Amino acid sequence: MHGPVVVLGAGGFLGRHVVAALREQARAVRFPERTSDLLRLTPADWDALLRGGGGVINAAGRTAGPENSLEAANVHLLEAALQAAARAHVPLVTFASAAEYGRTPGGHASQETDEARPLSPYGQSKLRGTQALQRAVQQGRVRAAALRLTNPLGEGIGEDTLPGRAARELRQAAQLRLDSVRFGPLGAQRDFVDARDAARAALHVLARLNASATQDLPDVINVGSGEARPVRDLVTGLAAQLGYHGELLEDAPGSPRSSDVPYQRADLTRLHAAGFRARHSFGDSLRRLTGRPVLA
After folding, report:
1. Looking at the 3D structure of the chain, how many domains does it have?
2. What integer best gives the mean pLDDT of the chain?
3. Cβ atoms 280, 197 nearer than 8 A
């Protein structure tokens, strides 16, 4: 790879991990001064941003909000970035989402060739973004890949997520010595992946795309741990890390997403065939999420 890597959404949870991974490799990083202005960039702005660069990693997007906002952030922005990457003749990697699969049978590891049936407006918008990327690749306009990410964990995760909220509430409960903390049902199973590994996967795929003049990788690749575990493991693991020994109740109202999608696990055949293996364990992720030291 030559030239700086352009990171879209560099100030977000995943974007910060991508920037850190690039800097660990002593790679130059470039990103817009104000991520909020990405949707206002003109073609000339895009061309200036990508000129002389070594590729684009798109970690921008929205997980919630009105449908028009989801469409703008998860579809229109990616389309503009794909067009700019095509003009600049550089590859692009974007973070897609396992939410694109929708409900899968218990025990089934979702494969990239499975029919995508997203249930939420978020998953539907992410699927439309992935489809836009696939069209651009199939038409030979750009070398690009969508990484269908499962549930990322790690330092800096937002408190609007279950892991972030659980860490905050359990930390407070430990400090106040509360007898119990209430959650919704925690039986849904999820595929959790360390955000550092997600960032490393993006860099790995971008390097592979950069090494070939043609698309030598599938245009959609799952990124996860390949293991499904109850969300309860996340909460009990966080409690142990934070020194909370009270009761963990599961009698609060549940998340609609948990009941709609009770099981999630990614098939990693394509990711492994591309030469990538995760480095961090579930325990590593929990330690990093709670601020405990862990080997990089």
Report:
1. 1
2. 93
3. yes
Q: Is residue 39 part of a domain?
A: yes
Q: Beta-carbon neighbour count of residue 243 at 10 Å?
A: 12
User: What is the DSSP secondary structure assignment for residue 99, as one 8-state letter?
Assistant: G
The dihedral over CA atoms of 239, 245, 246, 247, expressed in degrees to the nearest 10, equals 70
pLDDT of 3 strictly over 90? no
Angle among Cα 84, 224, 167 to the nearest 5 degrees reads 105
271 inside domain: yes
Question: Which tokens hold the place of 292?
Answer: 């405990």
Tokens 């903390």 correspond to 181
Reported pTM: 0.93
**Angle, helices 121-138/77-88, rounded to nearest 10 degrees:** 20
Tell me whether residue 164 is in a domain: no
Structural domain span for residue 212: 5-155+192-226+266-280
pLDDT the model gives residue 258:
56
